[in-house]
Amino acid sequence: MPTRTLSRTVLAASLVGALAVGLTGATATARTSTPLDGAPGIGDPYWPLDGNGGIDVASYAISHRYVLATKRLSGRTRIELTATQDLRSFSLDFLLEVTKVTVDGERAAYAKTDGGHELRITPARSLVAGTEHRVVVTYADKPGRHAYAGERNWLASSREVVTMNEPHMAPWWFPANDHPLDKALVDVKVQVPRGREVISNGELKGREVGKRWTTWHWRADEPMVPYLAFFAAGDFAIEKGTRRGLPWLVAVSELLSPRDQRASMRLMKRTPEVVAALEKDLGDYPFSVVGGITTGLDPGFALENQTRPTYPAVGGSYVSLVVHELAHQWFGDDIAVQHWRDIWLNEGFASFMEWRWAETHGGRSGAATLRSYYDGVAASSGFWDVVVGDPGAERVFDAAVYGRGAMTLQALRNRVGDRVFWRVLRTWIREQRGGNGSSAEFEALAARVSGQDLTSFFQAWLRTPEKPAATADNGLA
């Protein structure tokens, strides 16, 4: 099991989750007199069942067969994890019907709880805090039958499937510790009818072609948040190359019309160019490969799946969308949120980088964009009602989280000056790399790097449900 940097964060979250259900003593080194049942949630206030207490996952090895015509998924996932407390049982987030579970090669008892979202596993022997274990879950089901938190996230036709959604997607296709606090390595093998393609995160490691089936094997080099893992299966045109030492691979669904296919491929092939532009401001791209995929289905949104964002067909000129999703590779993927209330650190930052792209490619400046937003939205608008720093589960992806999040960053840039602002962002990326970040941590870092008291600034922009005053302190004068 590889050494990982997130154990301290996951251990703390496990303790929070344990306390939330009345448990005590959840640390990697502490011992309890009696093994306990791991908490069914990691401690996120928005979705209490997301993630799980008592475990820290290092890797997922996913091996599936998917039948496009029937939309049936079958296979197994091997999970390498560490117990972070003495455990009598533990949970994984998973919606599908399970046929077998083993822990360290021995059969384990299992049951579905909490409306079918939690897979509660009771191993033959209790797990001791600090010990490493291999869990294998076998299953077969039609994912489209299932819902969680009001979401039905399986996006599939009889010719194509793509697993893309946020904040939840993993439980529809593999058992996971489904919260940003627990990143893990992901290895994906998917078997599909011969002649079909499979696209996933990371690098294509191999393809085995049989008489009736083809198995595609993808692996990412860096740990990722579970919702960022994905696969797409169907008929895809694939192109690849290398730019400045960075391998890229893009794919476009052949379900699209020939005209849309050509336009989408032109847009996808701008991915390396966009990465190079982002690197000028943000430093080195954080992963070993990059790419993108355009689906022929209609998700209604794009998503920042790690190393290979997924897009709807939007034409060949919508570069700002590619900028947004690739900016997420730094803000959201490499640096994941601490809790979902910190979502502006993902969406506000990616939206701001769209402004920056326009500024450096013949469009208006970020300062002009901020002023246009500010002057164009009346104080009575509901846009100002959202508490950006803690919007609530119902408004976690509200337009204000994106727009006001970007405004906050440009206002900070106005307040501290351009040179200091970019030093703030670079320092944030360097210090949080590969981990998680909270709004409170970013605010403290901005104050430290700038040498300014920014308390009232962030209070006005992130925590006050009204239009900020047009003052120099708020970056608006």
From TrEMBL:
Documented EC number(s): 3.4.11.2
CDD domains cross-referenced by the UniProt entry: M1_APN_like
Domain Aminopeptidase N-like N-terminal: 60-228
Record's keyword annotation contains Signal: yes
Domain of life per record: Bacteria
Cofactor needs: Zn(2+)
Keyword Transcription: no
Signal peptide, first to last residue: 1-30
Keywords of the record: Hydrolase, Metal-binding, Metalloprotease, Protease, Signal, Zinc
Residue intervals of the Peptidase M1 membrane alanine aminopeptidase domain: 318-461
Top-rank EC class of the record's enzyme: hydrolase
InterPro entries xrefs: Aminopeptidase_N-like_N, Aminopeptidase_N-like_N_sf, Peptidase_M1, Peptidase_M1_aminopeptidases, Peptidase_M1_dom, Peptidase_M4/M1_CTD_sf
Reaction catalysis annotation: Release of an N-terminal amino acid, Xaa-|-Yaa- from a peptide, amide or arylamide. Xaa is preferably Ala, but may be most amino acids including Pro (slow action). When a terminal hydrophobic residue is followed by a prolyl residue, the two may be released as an intact Xaa-Pro dipeptide
Gene3D superfamilies: Neutral Protease Domain 2 (1.10.390.10), tricorn interacting facor f3 domain (2.60.40.1730)
Family: Belongs to the peptidase M1 family.
Protein name, per record: Aminopeptidase N
